[in-house]
What we know:
Elements: H1 2-6, H2 10-20, H3 27-50, H4 54-57, H5 61-65, H6 67-90, H7 94-97, H8 101-112, H9 128-137, H10 151-184, H11 188-196, H12 212-259, H13 277-322, H14 327-334, H15 336-355, E1 358-360, E2 365-367, H16 370-379, H17 381-405, H18 424-439, H19 442-452, H20 470-474, H21 480-502
Antiparallel strand pairs: 1-2
Amino acid sequence: EFWKVLALLYFPALYSPLLACAGPRHRLGYAAGTLLAWGHCGAQAWHRAQCPLAPKIHGLYSLLSHVPALLSLSLLSLWYPARLLRSLRNGDSPELRISGKSYYREYLKALLSKRDRKGSSVRIDESLSSRIRSYLLSYIYIPEEGFRIPLKLVVSVTVAVVAVYQVAVLLLVAVVPPLRIVRAGMTKDVVVLLVQFGLVPSQGAAVPGDLEQELRTARHFLWALEVCYICSLVLCCLLTCAMLLRSLGMHRSNLRALYQGAVLDVFSKAHILRPSRESLVCWMAFSSFQAAFACLGFLIQQVIFFLCFVAFTFLVVIPLQLGTSSPLFGIIRNMWPFWLTLVVAALMQHLLAHFQFLEQHSLQKEITNRRALYLVTFLLFPTNVLVGAMAAVWRVVISGLYNAVHFCRLDISLLHHGVETFDPGYRTYCHYLRVEVSQCHPLLKAFCFLLLQPGRPEPPAPPRDTQLEEGLQLMHPKHPAAGRARSRRVRARWCVAYTLLHNPSLTASRKTALADPAANGAQLGAPGP
């Protein structure tokens, strides 16, 4: 058991040197990363080709389950040599080692630009097709100029997609091949049992010699079950990926709002965006939580949609194909007075409310015929109880489907606003945002890079005339242009520092030491007696 626990650290310890080679941004690191990437990629390919236990699960499972690892290692095998060649060509200058410097400059330029945004004008008379198009486009993450999603969010979504892929492959291999084996080995003796239990319809006597039609029907049922399983699996994969892409758009909106200081636009109540012990723990566990929630939500969706597909297929599609009566159709046909009563009651209430109980005045509507309204309310109470029961069933179905589909998203809470802190996924996401915004504010880093920029090199002084007097040679005349340039540079840096200190949207991004007067350059007075 101890070795099983230590096995959880095997892959992080194995691949951590490969990822650490990109940290120094030096040619030696890129060279080591190239060798490690090539070695890992070759070892994975050789292991997949020579593994003797691969066919025990399924012939293609070993290959399909390692496709993400092979693709990632192949990408690193190309990325490290490209970075190495770029480093050899341009050199290891300190400017190139600063991560994200160009992005922070672009963010500052986009923030200070005076261009009108394309989405500033909103059309009131928007058509239905354009609204549907905009709703569908909201599930597709489109990069915007001047804003970049943090790397940890991209890695978290990628890891979640890979984890869902692994679970989908495992579910596919665990169910579909056994179903095919059962369908191929179906015999008439098994069909007799199915006919006796009423699972397969029979045209005549259940004699083993006269069950050819029943045997074909049983195999057709198993084939339909396999199709339902594969369709539900594909639908769950598409829904999970769509929800993860939608969460990227929500991440961008939340980060942009927090960068601007609009805390109440993201959280239900005001929060201080400073790191804490719980925030750091949630920041470390965010990617793992995203993968775990995505896999569990995928399993829940698979169970729900598989049952829905099976119910629709065996209660609607197959009875229509075979020309037999469906139990669902029989229930609906026998309960037609109930459904007619509900429809008539709902329609009558809407008509009475529109024509008898509301009276149009100049600018508003007023309630009229109050005695008749009370009488109709009392008479329709039992009928409305039945309508309420149907509405309650519909509420359970809708809430279950909504929660199952959105279970993989950590940026929204599945609980009410008052008790959303009991949602561990949403609480982890909120603490992650606190750490990300307080430590990686792009505007703060852009101004810091402006402060760290070296001044412009002064032009070389002209050669002095050797015929001048010795006293003039000993003089050091001051250049007024250089003094003015230096004063402008000092003034600009003081303006940047003043902006960093007094911008309210950057208050949570500053270090807490800046609140000390001594840290800001003020002199402390003598302590009082």
